[in-house]
Amino acid sequence: MKLQNATVLVTGANRGIGLALVRALLGAGVQKVYATARDRNSLEAVTALDSARVIPLQVDVTNHDLVSRLSEQAPDVNLLINNAGVLSFGNILEVPVEKIHEQFDVNFYGALNMARAFVPAIEKNGGGAIVNILTLVALASMPGLATYNASKAAAWSMTQSLRASVSDKNIAVYGVFPGAVDTDMLAGVDMAKTSPADIAKAVLHGIETDLEDIFPDPMSTQLYAAWRQDHKAVEKQFAGM
Ligand SMILES: NC(=O)c1ccc[n+]([C@@H]2O[C@H](COP(=O)([O-])OP(=O)(O)OC[C@H]3O[C@@H](n4cnc5c(N)ncnc54)[C@H](OP(=O)(O)O)[C@@H]3O)[C@@H](O)[C@H]2O)c1
């Protein structure tokens, strides 16, 4: 999909990868970006990037009424980027049940709510694309992120079903599988991380070159290659981390 003159909606646009995506989209010449967040006041910095092209709107992706209202406020979208996400650390036996629900509510149901709400508009607008920001650990579980992995693996499966279900509507569906990124989500985790700006650049390149599965950084590229060769070896490697 060409980004020039696209009308884009990004969830979780107030910080991290979402903020970097809005900045990169503006640089790529989009017509308009609906930058959305749970708290509209947190969108001041992103709106200041280009107050003519950035429209701040409030949405909590787990709230059906707000998602439905959003689809009415932003009827001209042709590119939806499901970026909002949450992560709780902990192994599969210990993560509190409410934290498991929270991760599935945002990472799986939230992205699905948004896709269901926006497919009719994107189709009506002549087609376009939906991007789901997943994670490398959707492919193989890292046990210290056990329930996050599971919610994102479910979102990956949803991404594949969605792709098949909208293929006759001129809507492309892209899955993004980042490795470690330098945002609040992994603050305090000491490891090599890619900048959100580099992730955003790779995501936009993937959309423009029609790459269904986007591995946007060196860690994800290398581990995806290893996973394709021997997925059990990657599972064992992650189990030891
Ligand atoms: N950082 C990494 O290493 C990494 C790696 C792979 C994939 N990812 C994925 O990349 C995406 C962005 O993550 P990030 O690293 O930028 O994390 P982040 O800095 O923690 O930002 C998360 C964003 O999601 C928003 N959000 C959370 N729950 C929401 C809800 N119910 N409704 C709407 N927005 C909600 C947050 O809004 P508030 O400010 O209101 O909390 C925030 O804008 C996520 O899907 C994450 O899983 C991140």
List the helices and strands and how they pair.
Elements: E1 7-10, H1 16-27, E2 32-37, H2 44-48, E3 54-58, H3 64-73, E4 79-82, H4 97-124, E5 128-133, H5 146-165, E6 171-176, H6 196-208, E7 213-214, H7 218-229, H8 231-239
Parallel strand pairs: 1-2, 1-4, 2-3, 4-5, 5-6, 6-7
Helix pairs in contact: 1-6, 3-4, 4-5, 7-8
Bound molecules: NADP nicotinamide-adenine-dinucleotide phosphate (NAP).
Plain-language structure description:
The chain is of the alpha/beta class. The chain has a single domain, classed as NAD(P)-binding Rossmann-like Domain (Rossmann fold, 3-Layer(aba) Sandwich). 45% of the residues lie in helices and 14% in strands. It has 8 helices and 7 strands. Strands 3-2-1-4-5-6-7 form a 7-stranded parallel beta sheet, sandwiched between helices. Helix 1 packs across helix 6 and helix 3 packs parallel to helix 4. It starts with 6 loop residues before the first strand and ends with a helix. The model has no long low-confidence stretch (mean pLDDT 98). Bound molecules: NADP nicotinamide-adenine-dinucleotide phosphate (NAP). The site of NADP nicotinamide-adenine-dinucleotide phosphate has 30 residues, from helix 1 and helix 4.
